[in-house]
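INSTRUCTION: Work out how this chain folds

Token vocabulary: learned, describes local backbone geometry

RECORD BEGINS BELOW THIS LINE
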Amino acid sequence: MDKNFGLKMRKAIRDAILEGIRRNAERIFDLSQEKVPVDRGFLKDSGAVNFLPTESVDIIYRAPYSSQVHDGIPEDIPITGTQTVHVPGYRRKDGTFVRAHDVTYKNKRVVQIRTPTGERMFRVIDRIKARGPRPFLLEAMQEGITYIDQDIGFCMAKKGFRVK
């Protein structure tokens, strides 16, 4: 019998378990992609599964507002600072031409909104409104983790181990 048999066996089991954990992370990510709220799709597109060299896995959403969507905003947040917006020249409905100019907003922000018909509108806001959480990743994790034994079992069987 091979004297390294025990080491090889331990490595094969360890590799199968790690593969099962990665498989489960991908399952959780896929579930989170089904649950993530979609407005323009930027949040959904910012999601990824990272397999780290430390044998751990990260599921992340890189959109700058992802935690605000997931965890909610408990109270209104006032906007501070200034924003200067360049307004290109345009013609009013009455035919008058307005030259290009800059507008500076103090403690306000100009945000773009798309109407249901696809038109772009701009609004000036002075606060980010409170909103409830939409814990898409937490819900996906709670659902997906229940399959961890199946995912590890599948990878163990793939390596030739009998799993009951």
Observations:
- The CA atoms of residues 32 and 138 lie 8 Å apart.
- The mean pLDDT is 90.
- The chain has five helices and ten strands.
- Helices lie at 5-35, 42-45, 66-71, 136-144, 148-158.
